[in-house]
Design brief:
This protein is α/β, with parallel strands linked by helices. Helix content is 38%, strand content 15%. An 8-stranded mixed beta sheet has the order 1-2-4-3-5-6-7-8, sandwiched between helices. Helix 2 crosses helix 12 and helix 9 packs across helix 10.
C-alpha cells in the first residue's frame, strides 16, 4: 500500500519533544477500567492471564502490551476505553509473568514469542461467537503481533480481520543498540530493573542454566539477552534471538490489512524499524510515520479522553 505521508496527527507546544511524548502519558494520563480476569492454562503446565471487557459485541480487540507492561499500563487502558466506545469487546493478553503473579516454568515471554498469542486466538475462535477479531500491539507486543500474522499467513482464520502495530521495533538488534545510547539510558535502566527482579524470582529454577551474578550486573539489552533471554529460550546468542524474532522477517508474508504507526522522532527506533520498501510493495501493510509522537506516546492537549493513536487505531479497524 502507498505510504501514508499526510498523517492526521497534529501537535502543539510543548509536545514537540519525543521524550515528553513518551513520558507524559505514563505519568499524567489516568484511566479507570474494570477488567474481568481469566486464567489460561497452557499445555506446558503454565499459565497466562487474560483481562476482559465484554459487552456482547460481535467484534473483539485483542491487546498486547509492551516490555514489562500489563493490562494495568495506561496505554492499554486507554485503548481499551477507546475500543469500548466503538462497540468492541476487549481481551488483553498479559504475557507470562506480567499479570502480577510469576509464571511457573523456566520460560517467560520475549519479543518473538508468538505461541501464547496463537493459543489465545485459537481459544477465542473455538469458544466464542465473535465474527470479527482485530489485533493491536504496542512496542514489544506490536512486534509479536506482526510476527504472528506473518507466520500465520495463508492459514489465518477469516474472522481475524486486521491488525495495528504501534511503536514497533521491527529490527530488534538495531533497536537494542539504539536504546543503549545515552539519550535512552534512563529507559534502558528502567526496563532492566524490572527484568532483573523477575530473574531474581526465578533464581531457584535457573541454577546451572545462566550465570545469575553476570545477569544482575548487565546494563544493556545486548548483555541481558546474551546471558538470559537467549539461553532461557533456546537461542544460540543475542544476535540469533534478535534476528529470528524481528518482525521484519515476516512483514512480506502478512495477508490481512495491517497498520504500522511509528513516529519519526521515536528515540527507540533506528531507520530499520521504518519498513518503507516493504510497505510500498505489500498490498496489506499501511505505514504511517508522523513527524512527532515519541514511543507509545502521541500526546497532545487535552490529554484526557481518546488520544490520536487510539482514534487512528479504531478508525482503521472499523474500516476493515
Amino acid at each position: 500500500m502507498p505510504i501514508i505521508k499526510s498523517s492526521s496527527f497534529k501537535v502543539h507546544f510543548p509536545f514537540k519533544s519525543a521524550h515528553l511524548h513518551t513520558i507524559y502519558p505514563n505519568l499524567f494520563r489516568r484511566h479507570k477500567v474494570v477488567f474481568s480476569r481469566e486464567r489460561f492454562l497452557t499445555p506446558d503446565d503454565d499459565f497466562f492471564d487474560i483481562d476482559w471487557i465484554k459487552n456482547d459485541s460481535e467484534s473483539l480487540l485483542i491487546l498486547l502490551h509492551g516490555l514489562e507492561g500489563s493490562s494495568n499500563a495506561q496505554y492499554i487502558k486507554g485503548m481499551a476505553k477507546a475500543g469500548v466506545k466503538e462497540d468492541f469487546d476487549i481481551a488483553v493478553l498479559n504475557f507470562r509473568g506480567c499479570s502480577g503473579t510469576p509464571n511457573k516454568t523456566l520460560r517467560t515471554y520475549h519479543s518473538g514469542e508468538t505461541e501464547d498469542l496463537g493459543l489465545l486466538v485459537s481459544h477465542i475462535l473455538d469458544k466464542s461467537s465473535y465474527k470479527r477479531i482485530h489485533l493491536v500491539g504496542f512496542s514489544l507486543g506490536a512486534n509479536v503481533v506482526l510476527k504472528y500474522i506473518g507466520e500465520q499467513s495463508e492459514n489465518m482464520d477469516h474472522r481475524v480481520k486486521s491488525a495495528v502495530a504501534i511503536s514497533v521495533p521491527c529490527e530488534l538488534g538495531d533497536c537494542s543498540l539504539e536504546i543503549a545510547k545515552a539519550k535512552n539510558w534512563i529507559y534502558c535502566q528502567h526496563f532492566l530493573i524490572h527484568l532483573k527482579r523477575k530473574v531474581k524470582l526465578k533464581r531457584h529454577i535457573t541454577k546451572g542454566i545462566i550465570d545469575y551474578k553476570k545477569v544482575m550486573k548487565t546494563f544493556n539489552f545486548r548483555d541481558f539477552d546474551e546471558l538470559y533471554t537467549a539461553p532461557i529460550h533456546g537461542f544460540e546468542s543475542a544476535e540469533d534471538y534478535w534476528y529470528k524474532s524481528s518482525a521484519n522477517r515476516n512483514l512480506d508474508k502478512i495477508r490481512i490489512p495491517t497498520l504500522i504507526l511509528n513516529a519519526l522522532d521515536d528515540t527507540f527506533l533506528p531507520d530499520s524499524s521504518y519498513p518503507f520498501e516493504i510497505a510500498l510493495s505489500s498490498p496489506h501493510i499501511y505505514l504511517e510515520t508522523p513527524k512527532f509522537g515519541g514511543h507509545v506516546g502521541f500526546s497532545s492537549l487535552p490529554i484526557n479522553g481518546t488520544n490520536w493513536a487510539e482514534f487512528r487505531t479504531t478508525e482503521f479497524l472499523n474500516a476493515h
